[in-house]
Design brief:
CATH class: Alpha Beta
Low-confidence stretches: 1-13
Mean pLDDT: 91
CATH topology: Aminopeptidase
Number of strands: 7
CATH superfamily: Gcn5-related N-acetyltransferase (GNAT)
Radius of gyration: 15 Å
């Protein structure tokens, strides 16, 4: 069984987040897309190489939250169904993206805490996250929010000509 990674640094604290977390609205899309692009540019957030269209994004996510700080979207978090099969109705994949300008302000923690609470309210019993091993901030955030390392998916996909490993983390609800 793999051991949990030990990222450096304390996890973000939602208690110190000075903004609000709310449902995504269509007019938020340009700022959500900008935060997504910030993540893509790091090279350690996703296999995606471009931001999808609003229509594609909206149709593939069952719940999307945004964190608003000083009237601007500071980040977003979403759930995507793991499968359309009935037996997996309570399993979802989560994503969390924080705009470059807002990192270190508790945005990720506030988003993931709310996403976990909302997912349980919707009957989700398992949340999954696929994270590049180099993305220490995301690993630390997920571990702080009750996720555990399930395993390493070696050479899962190719990005910019390089085969990348992905850590599989999951969180099981204690209530659902």
């Amino acid at each position: 069984m793999p051991t949990s990674p030990s990222p450096k640094g304390p996890p973000e604290s939602a208690q110190h987040f000075p903004g609000i977390v709310r449902d995504l609205r269509p007019e938020d899309w340009p700022q959500v897309a900008a935060a997504y692009l910030d993540g893509i540019r790091t090279g350690s957030a996703t296999f995606e190489t471009g931001v999808p269209t609003w229509e594609s994004f909206e149709s593939s996510h069952s719940l999307t939250l945004v964190a608003e700080l000083d009237g601007k979207v500071a980040g977003w978090a979403s759930l995507s169904p793991k499968s359309s099969r009935c037996c997996y109705r309570g399993v979802a994949e989560n994503s969390v993206y924080v705009a470059a300008w807002a990192r270190g302000n508790g945005v990720g923690r506030a988003l993931l805490d709310e996403l976990v609470a909302r997912s349980e309210g919707e009957g989700i019993w398992t949340l999954e996250a696929g994270i590049f091993p180099e993305n220490k901030a995301s690993i630390c955030l997920h571990l702080a929010c009750g996720f555990r390392l399930v395993g390493v998916r070696e050479r899962l996909g190719e990005l910019d000509g390089e085969w990348r490993d992905v850590l599989l983390l999951e969180r099981r609800s204690e209530f659902v």
